[in-house]
Amino acid sequence: MVINLIKKCKNNAKVSNGTSTISESKLSENLKSYGFNQQESVSNSLVGNRIIDIETLSNIFSELSCPKCYNNNLCLFEDSKYGLCSHFTLKCGKCDFLKGFSSTQKTLNVPEVNAIFVYGMRQIGKGFSSAYKFCATINLSALSKSGYKKHEHRLLKVVTDVADDSMCNAGKEVAETFNRDECGVSVDGTWQRRGHTFLNGCVAVFFIDTGKLLDLEVMSS
């Protein structure tokens, strides 16, 4: 909106001889009157994810000026969606302006929000059924079961590699910092669900002095 305002001010300031009737200081004062401060805008940049009603977003875009013809007739369309990620197109109803964008960043053409969502569900011990119910409750598009499982398999390899590296570094720390090959440890176990008769569980080994994890073994009967 600010960029459009600048372009429009400059366009309206042009005269037949090509000179401007408005100075840079005057333009700066006009921008300040709109409460715009470039340094504050940069320092207060927004990051992270938000849940927003799509109708609210569409209404906001309809109030903005087209960067090409300056008419307030921008329309938002959803071209496709994959899980929590949507692909939108912003189109002007008065000219040929067209702009496509995704609702989330992508890594190797994979929407980050879907991977984060699946990882978050695994962090609280929930799977596809719980994820599907959650999305349905707050009216979010959900991943298909096959798509959800695909993300789980990808995350499993990454999480396993990170865990192995972390435990390896913890072991090296014991050898280098404390200059010894043996150390006191604490061993603890847990089950996938409450109840000591459950079939799945794991055993963890921690270094007593630092509390860091040295080894982990998942067990199943």
What does this 3D model show about the protein?
It is a single chain. The protein has 221 residues and is of the alpha+beta class. Helix content is 42%, strand content 22%. It has helices at 2-13, 24-33, 38-43, 54-63, 112-123, 128-137, 145-177; strands at 74-82, 85-92, 98-102, 106-107, 110-111, 185-191, 200-207, 213-220. It has a three-stranded antiparallel sheet, with helices on one face. The chain has a three-stranded antiparallel sheet with strand order 6-7-8. A two-stranded antiparallel sheet has the order 4-5. β7 and β8 form a beta hairpin. The chain is elongated, with a radius of gyration of 27 Å. The chain starts with a helix and ends with a strand.
Mind sketching the topology for me?
Elements: H1 2-13, H2 24-33, H3 38-43, H4 54-63, E1 74-82, E2 85-92, E3 98-102, E4 106-107, E5 110-111, H5 112-123, H6 128-137, H7 145-177, E6 185-191, E7 200-207, E8 213-220
Antiparallel strand pairs: 1-2, 2-3, 4-5, 6-7, 7-8
